[in-house]
Amino acid sequence: RLFTLVGASYLETLARTVATLEMLGRSRRDFIVGCIDDACAVACAAASLEFLPNGFGGDLSFRIASIKFYAILTVLQRGEAVLSFDVDVFFFQDPVRDFPLRQLLTNHSSPYDAVVQLDEFPTKRHPRLNFGFFAARPTIEMQTLFRDLWAKYNRTAGRIWDQQLFNEAFGHLKNVGLLPLERYRNFMLDVSGHEGPADPCPPHLCPSPGQSETRAMPVCAHMTCVDGVANKELMARSAYGSADVGGYYSTPRKTIS
């Protein structure tokens, strides 16, 4: 299943994501949406998207993390593999058809129980992982892990950052694979660069030094550390060539022909 978490301010972005992934071969039956408010529930019902309604109190950040832990656990307990992504992930290819995710999500031959996007360059022995993009199989270990994470987060009443909990749980597991940054782009890392400012040219459009061919199209780009819906979509367009800014494809507009 494809899981993401949405509130009222990101409903247009959700529509863009669903339209993009349907165009790439997914079905809306693949989706399950965690709703953090009633507007999301209404929109998902109208769009025939499965959703989990908000059943948690507390402030917004607490509701977001609680629903996310609970929803992922729910999918795993159903015996289904899950690809969890933040709604500010922009897709260029069907992620389920890309090898590391295809192997984990669609069959039992993967050596990993989970694969995760990096949140820093893999120069450390245990680089920081990003809770905003990962996939997990419904193994007993993964179900137990997310049950414990959800319980621990609620016991602390959200005083511990969900990303911190995720890293503490996943960072030292041997059965977790790392998704390659060249195909699963992290905007914060692309902007900061490894040893200085990154090349602002879209990574799949610009040739590498000394090469004439263009780089391979990334599977997705995660617009980390960009504030606001409009800014995320604008930067996704300028940095990676994302074409659905403002819902151009998800809410088709008349064009001159």
Category from helices, strands and their pairing: alpha/beta
How is the main sheet built?
Answer: 7 strands, mixed
- The radius of gyration over CA amounts to 18 Å
User: What is the quaternary state of this protein?
Assistant: single chain
Count of distinct strands: 10
Number of helices: 8
Percentage of residues assigned to helices = 25-40%
Order of helices and strands: EHEHEHEEHEEHHEEHEH
Query: Which band does the percent of strand residues land in?
Result: 15-25%
Estimate the global geometry from the Cα principal axes: globular
- Low-pLDDT stretches: 195-200
Give the termini distance in whole angstroms.
38 Å
Strand order across the largest sheet: 3-2-1-4-7-6-8
- The average pLDDT value, as a whole number, equals 83
